[in-house]
Write a structure and sequence with these properties.
The protein has 510 residues and is mainly alpha-helical. It has 28 helices and two strands. A two-stranded parallel ribbon has the order 1-2. Helix 5 packs antiparallel against helix 6, helix 11 packs antiparallel against helix 12 and helix 22 packs across helix 23. The longest helix has 20 residues. The chain is globular.
Length: 510
């Protein structure tokens, strides 16, 4: 067992906390040598792990001094006064520390790279990795020298993410000619994306190249997504949508009711044994045919298990068209009542719940956000007090009716804080007003669609687009008039233009 534990310890990058007790027992019976400890350290470096604390008590003497110095550089970019050994381990430590420093201080990282690269013979790959990270965080923070740092990275080593951030940087520079040229540096696969086609059309339109812009808008508007519908708005077109429904006949129903694995999963779910239910579901779901899978998901929704449509349907074009499964309609009366009280569009509120929890009322985040609309108890209590809603404690947030009402109050607060800027209210609901205010200060004059695309946080950037698109689908599912997504970005639901859906001819699948 000692050899087994040693093998695991030396090769696994991250270990469960429970393993540390076993490793401590191993070390007591057969003390780990300095060589073995350094092997563990090297493995952590190779696997880009940050779990070095377990090693802090295992080194002694000169090894302990060297380890502490390495750790000081990884965590704080602190170099010792004496020279380190010029070897692969030192170079790996320097690279890791510089990569971390680039996120905190691009200028310091750039200056330090120049000295350590020469003194410790960093490889070309290591230098380029640090240069790329410096360029990335310069772009993310929209620094003045970001473009120069981007071009300092060799063209072949520029990642897809780095190229995307260069486009976002260009969007903030108020130079449409340069921005248009920037699209050419995207990788071939990126250039096929609806998102970049849409923004290229926007730039062409601003350059008065309307014919070229129209062709791109028409192409993108064939897609059923956020940018496809934005493109449709630019040319006053209807929205593309090709839904399919899972029709459950008697034969399907009998087959699924006789499937012991699926039925066991349903029973476990209804007994509030969520973890066991998910394990059982995953095992049984794999054995179903492609025709049976959406029908099993429809049955799961009948017992309130709404997230199966998101976590089980494979991300294929046809599966994405099961809109009635992917966008369920639970708690409709509660959403309607709360939306009416706080003067919100019901589709907007349902879209937030779908994005936050997939309508699972008992979910809790690592930040202690709870329920359908993921409310932090202290925030929910403040909303209750402000709106004369009886506060029933943190556990009440798992009650859908209570959570929906308080969530509507939270969304109304954000809407009031960002009048006529619904997209920023959505961002504030996700990332908080401090972040949104900072982004608005950095980029005050961007159009809403460009502002969304330049949001620093990936989660929030995607969240805003997702909620806006979801709200369109919820208006469709609720049989409401479809308000253009461009108006929704502003929080304006009073427009006279109403949208219809159509299925483009290019969609020939059933």
């Amino acid at each position: 067992w000692q050899q087994d534990v040693l093998g695991i310890w030396q090769t696994e990058a991250q270990l469960p906390t429970a393993c540390l007790t076993v490793i401590a027992a191993l070390n007591k019976l057969a003390p780990l040598t300095a060589t073995q400890n350094w092997q563990r350290f090297d493995n952590q470096l190779t696997n880009n792990s940050n779990e070095f604390s377990e090693l802090s008590t295992r080194f002694t003497g000169a090894d302990k001094i060297q380890f502490d110095q390495y750790l000081a550089f990884i965590n704080n970019a602190q170099l010792p006064t004496e020279t380190w050994p010029n070897n692969d381990r030192t170079r790996a430590v320097l690279t890791k520390g510089l990569l971390a420093l680039a996120k905190r201080d691009t200028t310091q990282a750039e200056n330090l790279l120049a000295s350590v690269a020469m003194n410790y013979s960093l490889s070309t790959e290591q230098k380029i990795a640090v240069q790329s990270e410096i360029a990335l965080w310069s772009l993310v923070n929209y620094q003045d020298n970001a473009e120069a740092r981007f071009f300092a990275v060799p063209e072949k080593q520029r990642s897809a993410n780095l190229r995307e951030w260069y486009m976002r940087f260009l969007f903030t520079q108020n130079n449409d000619s340069n921005t248009l040229a920037g699209f050419e540096q995207l990788l071939p696969e990126q250039q096929k994306e609806d998102r970049w086609h849409y923004f290229q059309a926007r730039v062409l339109e601003r350059l008065n190249r309307k014919k070229e812009a129209l062709a791109l808008y028409q192409k993108v508007s064939q897609s059923s997504n956020f940018h496809g519908w934005l493109a449709a708005d630019r040319i006053q077109a209807d929205y593309a949508l090709c839904p399919i429904e899972p029709l459950i006949n008697a034969k399907d129903l009998k087959s699924l009711k006789n499937n012991e694995g699926i039925q066991r999963a349903f029973m476990l779910w209804q007994l509030n044994e969520a973890n066991y239910a998910i394990w059982q579901w995953n095992a049984a779901y794999k054995s179903l045919s492609d025709e049976q899978k959406p029908k099993a998901i429809a049955m799961a929704q009948q017992i309130g298990w709404y997230d199966r449509a998101v976590f089980s349907l494979e991300n294929t074009p046809d599966n994405q068209r099961y809109y009635s499964l992917r966008f369920a309609l639970p708690y409709q009366q509660a959403f309607k009542n709360a939306a009416s009280r706080f003067q919100l569009n019901p589709s907007w509120l349902m879209a937030h719940a779908r994005a936050e929890s997939i309508f699972m009322p008992d979910v809790q985040s690592s930040a202690n956000a709870r329920g359908l609309l993921q409310l932090i108890p202290s925030t929910a209590e403040a909303i209750a007090l402000k709106n004369a809603i009886p506060w029933q404690g943190a556990e009440s947030l798992y009650n859908p009716d209570i959570n929906i009402e308080l969530g509507a109050g939270a969304l109304r607060n954000e809407m009031n804080s960002y009048p006529n800027k619904g997209y920023q209210a959505i961002g504030a609901y996700n990332a908080g007003p401090t972040a949104v205010n900072r982004w608005q200060t950095q980029r005050p004059n961007l159009d809403p669609d460009f502002w969304i695309e330049t949001v620093t946080y990936k989660e929030t950037r995607e969240y805003i687009a997702r909620v806006l698109a979801f709200s369109v689908l919820y208006d469709w599912r609720l049989n409401n008039p479809i308000v253009p997504i461009s108006n929704r970005m502003l929080g304006d639901f009073n427009t006279s233009r109403k949208i219809k859906f159509y299925c483009p001819k290019v969609s020939t699948k059933p």
